[in-house]
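Predict structure. Chain length: 143.
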Amino acid sequence: MADHQEASVTLPSDPVSVSSARRYVAGVLTEWGLAIDTEFADSIRLIVSELATNAVQHTFGQSPTFTVDLRLEREEQLHLGVTDSHPRRPRRLPAAVQQDNGRGMVIIRCLAKERGGRLTVTPTADGGKTVWIALPWSSPVQS
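Prediction complete.
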């Protein structure tokens, strides 16, 4: 395997694109050797689902598309990013807030932390942002 692999897809900011993003990521990671039936793979699918959902729901129609980026560095570190063109950064709600949605970032942070990873948000040149999750690539690979 190469020292550095990358993959990217841009999708319309539409609810149906969330499942497309999840399938895309699962397919790429399978190509890169990840056994898809692991807890690690489940965590990645949930993370991309939550990030893509945020990109669709919380950009208020101001981001017509979102982009999912994947980078695998030296089979040691996986970077998963979702970029949209809306400037508002994601906010974590207090645990005491009672509402039906808004827990996505809490879920993502918990999953990243459980897997030894981290979450960062970086601005883009066009005024949007990318929410990045970095995870150690420590799961078993297919032979």
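Summary: Residues 8 and 69 are 4 Å apart (CA to CA).
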